[in-house]
Amino acid sequence: MIITLTVNPAIDFAVTLDEFLPGDANRIQSSRSDPGGKGINVSRALLELGCESMAMGLVSGTRGRFIEHSLRDLGIYTDFLHTPGQTRTNITIFDRKHNTTTTLNERGPETTPQQIHTLLLRLKKQLNEGDWLVIGGSIPPGVDPGFYGEVIHLAKRIGVRCILDADGEPFQRALEAKPYLVKPNRDEVARLLGKMPKSQEPLLDAAEQIHAAGVEVVVLSQGIDGAIMVSDKGAWRAYPPQVPAISSVGSGDAMVAALAQTLSQGGSLVKALRLGTAAGAAAALTPGTQPCRQADVLRLLPRVQVHPIPHQPHKAAATVAASTSPS
């Protein structure tokens, strides 16, 4: 079973405008609301890919119940802990004229240590040896930045492999627990390392540094430029097909879903990277925060190119270890 954990979910409210005019009245051409948050988006993408999952995390108030009921209506298993307050709303504004995306993200409700303790107990009951756990997104106010690391340690004791997609200090602290796979993008890696390596292949070197720090598989996504994967078994670069993109929102979550599906079913790293790249490109074809469509993924899959790249063990593990230590 693949379980996704989202501790700071959101209702994703996406609006499309002919042109976004700051400081002026704007007429919305279309809008939609969807349950959101990285883990939840992964569960929705997994459903499209024909794979079951269970969505777990924290939800609050009427918005939280909307998220829970929406996922259940789709046929996704859920086990959310309800907490006081109100789940946040994230607003995404698509400007057709300039082909730009503007996001407005709320922080989320305050969360107490007792609520986190209860969530961990619930997670422990759901996890079984051989499961896969996808952890992603921001953490709400009141939660210690080391929370994801605590979750990873818990899962590893049970025999569960973890896939992490996070940013900032939660990402940094979680690396100390050595998740099985991480999927940062280039901006998240730059924030992690403080600066990109000065080399001919800065992204490859950055991925190798994270791998050398103890992460078995590193997938560094680069949007339309594809992705780099580094592991003990080798390194590869994936190139997605060019598509008439509508929205890049959710492409990274679709990639994570495809990686989790393939690896949980015993597929190879190369197969996982290829499907993940196709899923990310397919997600760009859907408006707003809608997940990738299986038909698009299967159509794009043969057009994904994956090539091996030279890979040598990196000696700069201390660089990442130093940057991930709490100040």
How confident is the prediction overall: mean pLDDT? 91
User: Major β-sheet, in short?
Assistant: 10 strands, mixed
**CATH fold-level name:** UDP-N-acetylmuramoyl-L-alanine:D-glutamate ligase
* Gap between N and C termini: 36 Å
Determine the structural class based on helices, strands and strand pairing.
alpha/beta
Q: So, the CATH homologous superfamily? A: Ribokinase
Task: Please mark out the parts with pLDDT under 50 across 5 or more consecutive residues, or reply none.
Answer: none
CATH class: Alpha Beta
Strand line-up of the largest beta sheet: 5-4-1-8-9-10-11-12-13-14
Radius of gyration: 19 Å
Number of strands: 14
Number of domains: 1
Helix-residue proportion: 25-40%
Proper CATH architecture = 3-Layer(aba) Sandwich
Counting DSSP H or I runs of 4 or more residues, the number of helices is: 11
Principal-axis shape equals globular
How do the SSEs run, as a string of H and E? EEEHEHEEEHEHEHEHHEEEHHHEH
3D architecture notes:
By secondary structure, the chain is an alpha/beta fold. The chain has a single domain (2-19, 30-323), classed as Ribokinase (UDP-N-acetylmuramoyl-L-alanine:D-glutamate ligase, 3-Layer(aba) Sandwich). 37% of the residues lie in helices and 25% in strands. It has a 10-stranded mixed β-sheet with strand order 5-4-1-8-9-10-11-12-13-14, with helices on both faces. Helix 2 links the parallel strand 4 (53-60) and strand 5 (77-83). Helix 4 packs parallel to helix 5 and helix 8 (251-264) packs antiparallel against helix 9 (269-283). The longest helix has 15 residues, at 269-283. The chain is globular, with a radius of gyration of 19 Å.
